[in-house]
Design a protein that fits this description.
The chain is an alpha/beta fold and 382 residues long. Helix content is 28%, strand content 25%. It folds into 2 domains: 21-52 and 198-381, Vaccinia Virus protein VP39 (Rossmann fold); 58-188, OB fold (Dihydrolipoamide Acetyltransferase, E2P). The radius of gyration is 22 Å and the shape is globular. It starts with a helix and ends with a strand. The chain binds S-adenosylmethionine (SAM). S-adenosylmethionine (SAM) binds at residues 209-211, 240-243, 245-246, 260-263, 266, 295-296, 314-316, 341.
C-alpha cells in the first residue's frame, strides 16, 4: 500500500508497511503460532484477510491547527499536529468527508484545543463509516460553548452530506489523554448507524464498540456460525457481546442465545438488531435472543441454571480472566469459541481452560500493516 504520510515519516502507525501483504501474513502467522504453542499445527486454517487499503470503519481524529486551517489527524510528541485526513486505510468516501468537516469548522470558527496552552474547544472528531457508506460523526468538545452553533448550522452539513446519518457532541472537559467524555448529546433524530452486512444488520451508537475492519469483521461472525453449524437447536451464550454480532450470526431456527455485555447502549443496539432482523426475516422467527447489560463475571447468575451448551467469548485485550474460566470449568458448555485481539492473554486463558481442547484456529487480519492479530479458536470439551 502506498502512503505518503509514511514515506515522509509523518506517521508510523502502520509499522509493517514496508512489507508486502503476503510477507506480513507469513510473519503474523509465525508470531501468533509462537505465542500459542498449545494449538496443534494442523488446527490452523488459512488466514482470513481483506483489502490492504480502504478498510477502516473508524477514524478518531485529533483536531489541531487553527479554525482557519484545521488539521485532522494525530498529535505529535511535541504537541504539534499532523493531518492524516487522506490516510489510505480510510475508505475513499471517508477521505472525501474530511474536507467538508474542515469547512464546517471554519464556518463555525471553532478553535481546536491546544494541549500546550490548554485553550480552544474542539478536541477530536470521531467518524464511522458503514459498509454502505453512511456516516456517524462525533464532535468531542471541551465545553458546551459551541453546542448551540453546531446545532443551528448542522442542517447545512446534513444537506451537503446526505449520507451523514448520526451526529453527536461529546463533552470532555478534563485535560486528560482520553478520547471521549461521559456526556453525549445526540443531535440527529437518528441515533444509530446501521452496519448492513449480507446476512444481518448491526447498529452502532456514538461511543459504542465496533470492530474496525469493514471487510474482515463479518468473516469473524461467519466463522463462528460455521463452527456451530453441525449443532442442532442449542442454548448459546455470547459473552462480551458488544452490539450482538456473534449472537445474531449464531441464531439459527430454534436456537436460544443470550448475550452479556457491560455497555448499556451496546445492549440496546443489539436488541434493536434483533427486532430489525425478526421484522425483515433475516433472523428465524423461532430463534430467541436476549441481551443483558451486566459484567461478564455475572455470567453464572445470568445463564447458570439455563445451562448453555455453546459459548462464544470475545473479551477486551486483558482476556476472559479467572472468573469466566472458573464458570466455564463448572458449566455444561461443550463447545467454546474464543475470539481474541490479544494472543498473549488468549495463551494465558487457554492454559487455564484445561477441560477443553482446541480443534480449530484461525487468524483474522483485522489490522493489516501492523503486528496485531485477531485469533479465533474452536474448543471442544474433552
Ligand atoms: C472485543 S469487544 C467485542 C464486542 C463484540 N463481540 C463484537 O464483535 O463487536 C469487547 C466487549 O467487551 C465489553 N466489556 C468490557 N468489559 C466487560 C465486562 N467486564 N463485562 C462484560 N462486557 C465487557 C466491551 O464493552 C466490548 O463491547
Amino acid at each position: 500500500m502506498q502512503c505518503e504520510y509514511y514515506q515522509l515519516d509523518q506517521c508510523r502507525s502502520c509499522t509493517w508497511l514496508d512489507l508486502e501483504l503476503e510477507t506480513q501474513h507469513e510473519r503474523k502467522a509465525e508470531q501468533v503460532q509462537e505465542i500459542l504453542p498449545m494449538i496443534p499445527a494442523q488446527a490452523w486454517l488459512p488466514m482470513a484477510y481483506g483489502p490492504e487499503a480502504g478498510f477502516r470503519a473508524k477514524a478518531k481524529m485529533v483536531v489541531t491547527g487553527s479554525w482557519k486551517d484545521p488539521q485532522l489527524g494525530i498529535l505529535n510528541p511535541d504537541h504539534s499536529g499532523q493531518d492524516l485526513s487522506q490516510c489510505p486505510l480510510y475508505p475513499k468516501q471517508m477521505q472525501e468527508l474530511f474536507p467538508l468537516l474542515k469547512t464546517f469548522i471554519r464556518l463555525l470558527r471553532i478553535p481546536p484545543y491546544d494541549v500546550s496552552r490548554r485553550s480552544g474547544e474542539l478536541k477530536m472528531i470521531h467518524v464511522w463509516i458503514s459498509p454502505d457508506n453512511e456516516f456517524m460523526v462525533r464532535w468531542v468538545l471541551r465545553s458546551p460553548k459551541f453546542l448551540s452553533q453546531i446545532k443551528s448550522k448542522l442542517p447545512l452539513l446534513l444537506a451537503q452530506v446526505p449520507a451523514l446519518k448520526v451526529v453527536s457532541v461529546n463533552l470532555l472537559p478534563e485535560h486528560v489523554a482520553l478520547t471521549e467524555g461521559a456526556e453525549e448529546i445526540i443531535l440527529t433524530p437518528q441515533e444509530h448507524l446501521p452496519m448492513r452486512f449480507a446476512e444481518q444488520t448491526l447498529f452502532l451508537r456514538p461511543g459504542g464498540f465496533f470492530q474496525t475492519n469493514l471487510f474482515v469483521t463479518p468473516e469473524l461472525y461467519r466463522q463462528a456460525a460455521a463452527w456451530t453449524a453441525d449443532l442442532e437447536a442449542c442454548r448459546a451464550v455470547d459473552l462480551f457481546c458488544g452490539v450482538g454480532g456473534f449472537a445474531l450470526w449464531l441464531a439459527r431456527p430454534s436456537w436460544q442465545v443470550r448475550g452479556i455485555e457491560i455497555s448499556e447502549p451496546a445492549v440496546a443496539a443489539a436488541k434493536m438488531a434483533v427486532a430489525v432482523g425478526l421484522q425483515r426475516g433475516t433472523l428465524p422467527q423461532d430463534a430467541s435472543l436476549e441481551f443483558f447489560a451486566a459484567d461478564a463475571s455475572e455470567v453464572f447468575a445470568l445463564v447458570g441454571d439455563w445451562d448453555p451448551q455453546v459459548a462464544v467469548v470475545n473479551p477486551p485485550r486483558r482476556g476472559i480472566g479467572p472468573e469466566t474460566v472458573a464458570w466455564l470449568a463448572g458449566s455444561g458448555v461443550k463447545r467454546l469459541i474464543y475470539s481474541s485481539c490479544n494472543p498473549r492473554s488468549l495463551a494465558k486463558d487457554l492454559s487455564q481452560l484445561t477441560d477443553y481442547e482446541v480443534s480449530a484456529a484461525r487468524i483474522f487480519d483485522l489490522f493489516p500493516h501492523t503486528s496485531h492479530a485477531e485469533v479465533m479458536v474452536k474448543l471442544e470439551r474433552k
